[in-house]
Amino acid sequence: MDTAQSDLNLLLNGEIIASQLTPAGSNYTFLVKLCLDSRTGMAIYKPREGEAPLWDFPWGTLYKREYAAYLFSQALGWDFIPLTVIRQGPHGVGSVQQFVEHDPRQNYYTLTALTPTQAPALQMVACFDLVANNTDRKAGHLLLDAQGKLWGIDHGLTFHADTKIRTVIWDFKGQAIPGPLLAALAALKAQVPSPQGHLRELLELLPAEEVQALLRRLEWVLTERVYPGAPGQRPFPA
User: Fold this and answer.
1) pLDDT tens for each residue of 110-139
2) Pairing of strands 142-144, 150-152
3) Is residue 231 one of the residues assigned to a domain?
């Protein structure tokens, strides 16, 4: 079994042998330890029952959106969201995401000082957030691991049918979206009539109105081909 399959097997089938509630956030989030045979690993578990009611997102859907964001990133070939699954846990069904060891002192604002080395990765995340309609890209939702790889976490507030992107990443305003990112979006669009794999699962997971909104945002980004500036009303996450 290769590493990727082993990681997936651990997340899906590993026994949760320890669980610690993390203090940050309005929703219940647990750092858990998984064990399967002789292998152990850490993950972030977000149960549906721990979701706080929101006025604009249907209750009980945030864990699905965490998984949807992972599926979308994989369908695009943009490997920046940790491996994520939906499964049962000690508090019921929820998302379980591979934990990324990282330097907690790093966040978006410190990472921007590392450009140009981190600029391509940040541009990819910014492009993803436009199409996924991320309404909660906080500075601390970007992690840097020991190998210098950028990761994005906390995607429960994505794919709303109404466009209301809220993010800290507005630094690329007016710049052209890099060609490889546009090519990935165009390739995904071409697959929509006969989706397979991650894309098919994503389109089946989201409600019909959110799928149509996703396709409109995809067309918008492919047409405009530049990063927009911050809109006038609530461009930053709370």
Assistant:
1) 877 655 678 899 999 999 999 999 999 999
2) antiparallel
3) no
Rounded CA separation 98/8 (Å)? 9
In a domain, 28, yes or no: yes
Residue among 116, 125, 140 nearest 25 (CA):
140
User: What distance in Å separates the CA atoms of residue 112 and residue 117, rounded to the nearest whole number?
Assistant: 9
Question: How crowded is the C-beta side of 173, counted as CA atoms within 13 Å?
Answer: 9
Output DSSP code: residue 50: G
- 146 CB neighbour count, 10 Å cutoff: 9
Length of the chain: 238
Residues 6+ apart with CB under 8 A from 107: 139, 140, 142
The domain in which residue 35 lies consists of 3-224
Average pLDDT of every residue of the chain? 93
Looking at the structure of the chain, the number of domains it has is 1
Query: What residue ranges of the chain have pLDDT lower than 50?
Result: none
Is 110 among the domain residues?
yes
Residue 114 neighbours by CB under 8 Å, 6+ apart = none
Q: N- to C-terminal Cα distance for the chain?
A: 43
Q: Within a domain: residue 230? A: no
* CA distance linking residue 123 with residue 180, whole number of Å: 11
